[in-house]
Design goal:
alpha+beta; 5-stranded mixed β-sheet; elongated; single chain; 404 residues
Length: 404
């Protein structure tokens, strides 16, 4: 397909189409009613071109950082290209009609030739099947289904997939190439790639620096990761430089890792004890940077079940913490992905309640319908609240979506 569109005659035909579109734009300038269509044309082009110049990088950096929900446009041509093509087609038809009206007797012949070229010759790969190659559909090996069934019998905590990817792209020996698909192959929540923009990405991207540390399972416990899936069926590329054998050696050097369970090309390791989705801590280690925070997590004597790490660089308005804290008994119910109910029992002292979902100021904790205002990022990615009420009570944690 790519060879077809690289031919000089096809490139020339594409340029002619663009020239007709430009002609349509120039002709329609004098009509006020076409102003809206021209606005869509310009907006569609600017958004669809992505990071390409002019101003692409600066525009998207501002957009993603200021309005996180716009990250759906990280593949802008796929998501927004139709807006550009819609207005593009208007201007093309306007320019084409202007030319055809000057053909007089040859008008019908001219339009027929254009239709044949556009709907026949120019899209020839659609007619002969070159667009839909064997890579469009692949069969996932049966051992993925077996591994998923096994993991579902263990717990509902997160999975970490190796190799670690610095980008979302991966290629497998069984024919798949594209964005890392583990979130669709396993029922449990998966940490498998970086989309460079999600709140947890910075934390995840530093994992390779700590894989060689024997206490790396502390970082996994804090992340709520109880299973490590090593994919031996990947094809090495520039995004996963480390070999699978290196990963296996590093895992065997970690503390508190169980024996491997193998399903053909998948090796699964488990941690016996990790933090739940909601849990309390009675100690807080306050550090300056992410590196300092992760160094603290892998120190001998650090207990991820009782201590949280707060990074000053990630919190503009860091709350004050009580000097004397203690861990109470809690239980929780996950009502939905955006709503948790936490039962606190016999809290004698203040404590920090942690929700192991990516930090967002839209997460809100309430006690007796009163907002808990001491909300901050903890453990480099999660939500934390200082709970100062004593006794038995219920904490309602909800993600409040803003309507635009």
């Amino acid at each position: 397909m790519y060879d077809f569109y690289s031919q000089p005659k096809i490139l020339a035909l594409s340029i002619i189409i663009f020239v007709i579109v430009v002609l349509g734009v120039l002709i329609s300038v004098r009509f006020k009613k076409w102003g809206y269509v021209f606005f869509l044309f310009f907006l569609g082009w600017f958004v669809s071109k992505g990071y390409n110049p002019p101003f692409g990088e600066a525009f998207y950096q501002f957009l993603f950082n200021t309005f996180p929900f716009t990250q759906v446009l990280r593949n802008p041509y796929e998501k927004f290209g139709v807006v550009w093509l819609l207005s593009y087609s208007f201007f093309f038809s306007f320019g084409l009609l202007w030319i055809a009206q000057r053909m007089k007797a040859a008008k019908s012949l001219f339009l027929s030739i254009v239709l044949i070229l556009l709907l026949g010759y120019l899209v020839q790969p659609l007619w002969n099947g070159d667009v839909f190659t064997e890579r469009v559909q692949v069969n996932v090996p049966e051992y993925y289904k077996e591994a998923n069934a096994y993991l579902n019998t263990k717990d509902n905590n997160r999975l970490l997939h190796l190799p670690l990817l610095q980008e979302p792209t991966i290629e497998y020996t069984w024919g798949y190439r594209g964005e890392e698909p583990s979130e669709f192959l396993f029922d449990r929540s998966s940490l498998s790639r970086s989309d460079r923009g999600l709140p947890a990405d910075e934390f995840y991207l530093h994992f390779p620096d700590y894989l060689v540390r024997k206490n790396f399972p502390n970082i996994l416990a804090i992340s709520g990761i109880s299973g490590i899936v090593v994919h031996q069926d990947t094809i090495k590329n520039r995004f996963n430089q480390q070999s699978i054998d290196d990963y296996e050696r590093q895992i065997r050097s970690w503390k508190n890792i169980s024996e491997v369970k193998s399903f053909d090309k998948l090796n699964i390791y488990t941690l016996p004890k990790v933090n739940d989705w909601v849990y309390p801590v009675g100690k807080v280690a306050i550090v300056n940077s992410l590196k300092h925070g992760m160094d603290t997590m892998v120190e001998d004597g650090f207990d991820p079940q009782s201590t949280g790490v707060v990074i000053k660089a990630q919190n503009k308005n860091l709350p004050s913490f009580p000097k004397d804290m203690a861990i109470p008994k809690i239980s929780f119910k996950k009502n939905s992905a955006t709503h948790y109910t936490v039962q606190v029992k016999d809290a004698k002292k203040p404590f920090v309640l942690i929700l192991s979902s990516s930090f967002n100021p839209l997460w809100e904790a309430q006690i007796d319908q009163k907002i808990v205002h001491k909300h901050f990022k903890i453990n480099a990615f999660a939500n934390g609240w200082v709970m100062e009420k004593k006794g038995d009570y219920i904490v309602d944690i909800t993600f409040h979506k803003k309507l635009l």
